[in-house]
Write a structure and sequence with these properties.
homodimer, four-stranded mixed β-sheet, two-stranded antiparallel sheet, globular, mainly beta
């Protein structure tokens, strides 16, 4: 963070009272996380975080998640090399969803696609 | 959709086999939905959809969700007037998360903010 005022969606952001006070985890201890590329703004993936994943993300500035299927913490790109550098973490109005704003030089999807959202549902 | 090839995150998108085949709802019958402003790319909100909300979204090209607290379908902006025009619906690699790409002329957050993500969790 520099001296410039932080903003998102064209409005200044407010600091929250600090983790974990400003994040409400669900009854499984999880929140969904939208991973968004800094600058271009594309949504790369959506995954889940528990309190420990969020703590590690804030501490290491790389993206940590909780795998619901493997029931373990994972550090995105630790095996593939496509690490995500976390620039900011935003939290929504009801404190139950996060955005990790990242720089992701490589593909974010395990399929090799830049974004996991590479398929389209036709409108009616 | 025009004749131009649809793309997202700099890559062409693939059509999926049609709703609901290409969307997997969770054991509550829900998927998370990221609502993203077309063009600028800002994430405006994250909410939930069930199959009926998605069907109405595809049919009406306005954004429908399922309220977990009120246990009812809601059409965003139907009371406030800040309707979201849905331009595209994207689905992720494991078919359990959606993006509604919308044009949202007004604020998307019930607080009056442009985006629900107006608060920032400080990095460590």
């Amino acid at each position: 963070m520099t001296d410039e005022i932080a903003s998102y969606a064209g409005e200044p952001t407010l600091p929250c009272n600090g983790f974990p006070d400003c994040v409400r985890f669900d009854d499984r201890g999880l929140v969904p996380v939208v991973v968004q590329q800094e600058g271009a703004g594309e949504v790369l993936m959506v995954a889940w975080a528990n309190a420990e994943a969020l703590r590690r993300t804030l501490d290491t500035r790389t993206s940590w998640f909780w795998s619901r299927s493997r029931k373990e913490l994972w550090n995105k790109g630790a095996t593939s090399g496509n690490m995500q550098q976390v620039k900011r973490v935003l939290v929504d109005c009801d404190a139950d969803t996060l955005i990790y704003v990242v720089d992701s030089p490589g593909p974010a999807c395990h399929t090799g696609h830049r974004s996991c959202f590479f398929r389209e549902v036709p409108l009616g």
